């Protein structure tokens, strides 16, 4: 016996027969399992085995949920498409409205401009008619004044005249200026203030009325509106020679008389038209 056998804590517990038998059985079972596994492994190594995995079958509730989700997705896509189409239609409508508004404004502006032009034209025509009537009355007055104050002679003699007070209006300004130059010398190329040639005197006279005549008698014979000699009025330009090739010009002052820078021997005079008939006439006023 061991020298510690009498001490209880140092004694080894005895194993019962049943525990030993259980352990022997477990050990044998493990060895048998390993043997079977080894044999199975060897068999598997010798011949591959194909294994089929079956997916679980969807239940009725899950199928319904999937279908509803697909429908919702499709509906959302349809809603997005509809909204995009609406947005595009709205943008197109806005663009068209802007174009229509611009066209309407342009049309209104054109109409307003046309109305303004028509009003301006009507006003100009009315003023022109009033001015024409005023000039006609003025010419009548000037013609009567010229007949009563002027005594004209033809040939080399100098005409004597009493210059009337300046008449109002453009025609009156022209006639008054011309009569104020009576007695001045004739000088070829003269443009005043004390000597003139025929076209230089006529040009200076019409400048008093704000009319810029060309310089030469040829050009003056085609300036303005042609009038027949039977319809001439005070202030009309008379020319001798052809229109565009005239060699002399003067101004009709009424009463069958005209005023011109005749020649070096006469100077600026008033003459009787019947003594030296003109070839034609133009109206610049």
Task: Describe this structure as you would to a colleague.
With 285 residues, the chain is of the alpha+beta class. It has a single domain (78-285), classed as endopeptidase fold (from Nostoc punctiforme). Helix content is 51%, strand content 13%. The chain is built from five helices and ten strands; from the N terminus they run ααββαββααββββββ. It has helices spanning 17-46, 60-149, 169-180, 198-207, 217-220; strands at residues 150-151, 160-161, 185-186, 195-196, 225-227, 237-240, 248-254, 257-261, 268-272, 280-283. The chain has a six-stranded antiparallel sheet. A two-stranded antiparallel ribbon has the order 1-2. The longest helix is centred in the middle third of the chain and has 90 residues, at 60-149. The chain is rod-shaped and about 135 Å long. Residues 30-46 and 149-168 have low confidence and may be disordered.
